[in-house]
Amino acid sequence: MPNSELMAIGVFARCAGLTASALRFYADSGLLPPVEVDPVSGYRYYGADQVARATTLRQLREIAMPLTAVEAVLDAEPDEASRLIDEHVAKVLGDAAAVQQKAASIKSSLTDAASLPIAALKGPVLADAIEQVLTATAREPGMPVLGALRIEATQAAVTLTATDRYRLATRTLVPAEAAATTWAATVDGDELRAALAEIRRSTLVRVEATPHGCWLRMTDREDRYCRLLSEQFPDYRLMLASLPEATTRVTVSKELLLRALEEHPGERITLRVTHHGLHVLATEAEPADVPLTAITTGQDLQISFELTTLYPAVSTAIGPDVMVDLRGPDQPVTIRSADRGDLTTLAMPVKPDHSG
User: Fold this and answer.
1) pLDDT at 2 exceeding the cut of 80
2) Where in the chain is the domain with CATH 3.10.150.10?
3) Which of 8, 128, 204, 335 is 20 to 30 Å from 59 at the Cα level?
4) What is the pTM of this model?
């Protein structure tokens, strides 16, 4: 008779989150043999100390790890097991990217329409612009457009825009060659992120449009394809045009402001602007402040932000100094370089009472 401390296969299966049939398979493959098998009935029994191994086995199979690799992970020391898991994830991601690009080629071949040349841009410049603007995106179920990048091309400029509803970032680039046509589309942000390394290493990137995507034609590198989204992008131009005039302006060192934000103890940041300069308050309840040397004009103002909204807007600004235009404690704030206007970010404040 089995030891009373052992568990029947059904009980053990529930503890490990596996089915009895899966346990039989793993036993037959040698990955998880039972402690005891009743010689008469054939019933299998497992020990409580096998639950952790069974749970890890299940989790590894859930990330599509093959049995040979699972066995290596289960029998390895923690550091080696972590390395093997990282190798598996890298392979899965690489395979997925290859499948994605192959599928793009197949879809492109299904239509008789030739790709439409849009613009040519310097690869490193385009990569930096994409990376900067994509900081203003978010993954939100049911609203994929908030994770996307809007690209608008004219003969004179290519504009990249993104928004997560709390921030809006837009940057205008001068193409290396005049744009061939006027074009606008919303491009999948994750696919652009995946292509960033190749874009940055390409001297020139030619953007070509297809009915459902855009090709990024690289110099001496593999071309990349990114899907277009059909959802309507927010009318950000109307929002920008409707902004009231700024009532307060602050010009401050980007490095000093970022350092103050990094050292701030809370999740929300309160800025106080006076004619003496800019102050980063410790908390609203205890308004000990960090004074920053800044050039200020206009009305005195106190305004609060989520750190996750303000910090990316400041960190992506171009140049050593940032210019902040404020319109009131509940109005969008414009953040841009003090001497360059091709990257602009809008950041939404929070109400002083923290009600959102």
Assistant:
1) no
2) 114-236, 243-347
3) 8
4) 0.75
